[in-house]
Amino acid sequence: MPRIKLTALPHQHCLQAKFEIITPMFLGDANQKATSIRPTSIKGALRFWWRAINAHLSLDELAKQEAKLFGTAEQNIGQGCFSINVTHLNLKAGSIGVNEREPAAGVVKYSAQHYLLGQGLTSVRNAFESGTFTVELLFMPKADKKAIEQIETALLAFACLGSLGSRARHGWGSIALVDLSGNQFIKMPKTKEEYRQALTMLSKDKINGLPQYTAFSSQTRIDIVQSGGNVQNLLNLAGQQLQLYRSFGNNGKVGKINAERNFTEDHDLIRDHLTGTPATKAPKRVIFGLPHNYFFSSVSSNNKAEIHAYAGSEKTRRTSPLFTLIRKIGNQFYLLHALFPAVFLPDQMEIRFKDGHRKLNFAPDYKVIEDYLNRPAFKDAERVLP
User: Fold this and answer.
1) How far apart are CA 385 and CA 367, in angstroms?
2) Helices (H) and strands (E) in the chain, counts
3) How many CA atoms lie within 13 A of 200 on its CB side?
4) What is the mean pLDDT of each run of 10 residues along the chain (386 residues)?
5) DSSP E strands, 97-211
6) Angle at the Cα of 236 from the Cα atoms of 230 and 241, rounded to 5 degrees
7) Beta strands in 163-255 (DSSP E)
8) Can you give the pTM of this predicted structure?
9) Do 20 and 159 contact (CB within 8 A), yes or no?
């Protein structure tokens, strides 16, 4: 793609941030092809992280400030305080599929990485496998120092905790900030300690209690789980441990390892529902996000169940409050867990089976995820927050 450089006017602030893709990024166009990283994707990510660090504002004030910074269709505000340009360098797109045995040909079926994909990738899908991209932010003359500082801070949050594309909260689409210029208020973390300091700074306005949406709060937990020189090993560790913790297993096994069966009550609840005893409550593991699916090989017919969030009659999603991330500092890769507890669903939303007919009661319990983060496999994790 030809580089289109933004031209800054005299005294106009322009920031450039260069990122490296370190795990496959499942971004696609209308034909599911990885052809570009669009400015709208970056702007959406910056909005998300700006909201996450500003939950101390009232919702009215949040909306008012967000409109001024990012723009709105309202005529009295219009365009936001900056423009975005994204340029690509050496992006390599390829097809990633799921196969039975050969790692070289993609993701092995039922493997740890397949689990991180949600086991929904049953065929070939296009992704950016590697390469770099540069985000250029050109601030409008109307942008004052406070506005520039807020957008720069959102960019830093994206660099520290953000990812792009499908399954971005499950290790995929991970990025590394490798160069930063034109910055006035933020610094690029170049060591693990500077990375820890950046995360602490981002949470300085955290609120007490549960926020209304994904945001920094007193309950936010961030762990640097493990480091290493091989990103595949870290992805495998994350996928294997999550699968062992959550899965009931098949014939007592998860892969070749004895199943832990930490959620037998969930298993029995849905199995009994499918065989004639209607469920009235949702499984505990719903806390990891919705939809939440089941398949019982031991049940001869009607052996699948899907549990969804509903807004009225419309199915929707509840994304995972647990972010599994890979970051790169120098030549080292780091596996991170970031847990953002928040109000699980708005009052007007419900949890139901796929057919939408049966409402399921649910009492969100984030200890289910805390217990996962406290597994023996993660005993050497370094706590960053709280």
Assistant:
1) 16
2) 8, 16
3) 10
4) 50 88 86 85 96 96 94 78 92 74 60 71 75 95 92 97 91 95 92 95 94 96 96 91 92 88 95 92 95 86 89 90 94 96 93 86 96 96 95
5) 98-99, 107-108, 125-139, 175-181
6) 135
7) 175-181, 221-228, 253-254
8) 0.90
9) no
